[in-house]
Amino acid sequence: MPELDDRRRRLVLTVCCVSMVMVVLDITVVNVALPSVRREWGASVEALQWTVDAYTLVLAAFLLPAGAAADRWGRRRVFMAGLALFGLGSALCALAPGAGALVGARAVQAAGGTMLNPVAMAIVATTFPGREERARAIGVFGSVSGLSLALGPVLGGALVDAWGWRAVFWVNLPVVAAGLAGAARWVPESRGARARRFDPVGQLLVVALLGGTVFGLIGAGRDGWSAPVVWGPLTVAAVTVPLLGWWEARRADPLLEVGLLRSVPMVSALVMAFAALCAFGAFLFAVTLYLQGVRGMSALRAGLCLAPVGVLIVLLSPWTGRVVGRRGPRLPLVVSGTALASAGGLLLLMGPGTPVPALVAPFAVVGVFQGTVNPPVTSTAVTGMPGSMVALASALASAARQTGSAVGVAVAGTVLAGGVAAGGPAFTGAAHGVWWLLVAAGVLIAALGAAGSGRRSVGRGAGRQPERRAQSAQSPR
User: Fold this and answer.
1) How far apart are CA 85 and CA 268, in angstroms?
2) What percentage of the chain carries pLDDT values higher than 90?
3) Considering the domain boundaries, does residue 195 fall inside one?
4) Maximum Cα–Cα distance for the chain, whole Å?
5) At 175, is the secondary structure helix, strand, or coil?
6) What pLDDT digit, counting tens, does each position of 406-436 carry?
7) Which of 140, 157, 186 is the last residue of a domain?
8) Could you give the CA distance from residue 452 to residue 455 in angstroms, rounded to a whole number?
9) Inter-CA distances, 381 with 78, 178, 384, 466, Å
10) Co-location of 245 and 260 in the same domain
11) What does pTM read for this prediction?
12) DSSP labels for 406-444?
């Protein structure tokens, strides 16, 4: 890649941050729009769950192959294709005639999203080769994510109140157009030094595992746990786990490096990433329905109630990064887990008529949790990894987050299914199951953080073994 001057590098970083804003906004903005979607079409809770989960499931399932495609075919080319596909999906969402079409369009949107953030991170890392300047650029990139979470509920609420829920998708189109123009003009083309081979069988097994899990959990809210449409997909997901491990162990370039799972810090990070976003996804889904359905708030007012979550993420994320750099991940993880468990405990006290200030307090504590969890989880994931495995370890942690978010929404919808229709005390009573989920996830994160597993690794060859295997194998079996 040619040497770039400072101005060109800043422009490249700006273009990459645009992609981050869109992908993160479309996780949080849509939650605020769900009650309006439900009113317009009389959509079921199941349809609302799939509106969120179609997006996060596709992101989780296809993050890793998107990175391989960018290394092989060119990062700018794949990045621009992702922007175009994300824009197409956004337009299809805005034009959707019904809930089924909206869910399908969300999957298209997410397919574009898989080509944006992971590829954008690779572009940033390539554009800023110096260690210090790369760290600063990645810090800016990460801060934009926090800012997007802060703005998401408020922006979504304003758009829904002013122009209806379809506006949250139309607003993406000018941003996509600006991103395409900027990428074509300023982002140089680059490729990976060694492109990983594609693993279609492994990809199919991942889709079966994630899809079967979420499909079964969502169906349980409608049909009960004994229904074949529930236990069937869950059984498929369970059977897929050993099949996936067996297949990936035979590959020279596996989609999932099973050798990484010999690292205790890696496994700990994946569990914490899953638990954190499972809790946060369930929280957003339940609270949005509560504020607009039970309390009758407008979308904007509901978004403003959730604003403390995002504000605290923005304020605490830089501090957390500094603490992790100086003292390690233990303290932030204990703080984060304790905050999440405390928020769940406070939300157990929430009723249909709880005063708004009393609602904002646990929301702010959720912001403390989110503002202190991501940097230490990422740091834990890459502990003890060789340089060539760091990007893959980070991508696995991102996939665990998206998977956790999808499962959290599925669980929340299943728990709340009866309470949504009844409203009032029935809803807040059903929501206790969601709040106990937050308590359990918080205790788990705090316990793993206190255990300090990030300081040691079982099987120090975990990171090197995949490298040796890839070098010695001539082709995938």
Assistant:
1) 34
2) 41
3) no
4) 66
5) helix
6) 999 999 988 998 777 767 889 999 999 999 9
7) 186
8) 6
9) 26, 34, 9, 16
10) no
11) 0.83
12) HHHHHHHHHHHHHHHHH-HHHHHHHTHHHHHHHHHHHHH
Residue 296 lies in a domain: yes
State how far the Cα of 453 lies from the Cα of 471, in Å rounded to an integer. 30
Model confidence at 340, pLDDT cuts 50, 70, 90, reads very high
How many domains does the chain contain in total? 3
Question: Is the domain of 82 the same as that of 38?
Answer: yes
Q: Identify the top-confidence range among 125-129, 182-186, 258-262.
A: 182-186
Structure token pair of residue 417: 């299914």
Contact 279, 408 (CB under 8 A): yes
Are both 218 and 285 inside the same structural domain? Answer: no
**Tokens encoding 133:** 């300047």
Tokens of residue 455, six digits: 């300081």
CATH number at residue 419: 1.20.1250.20
Domain hosting 162: range is 1-186
74 and 139 together in one domain: yes
Between 457 and 401, where is the model more confident?
Answer: 401
In a domain, 99, yes or no: yes
CA distance 274 to 355: 32
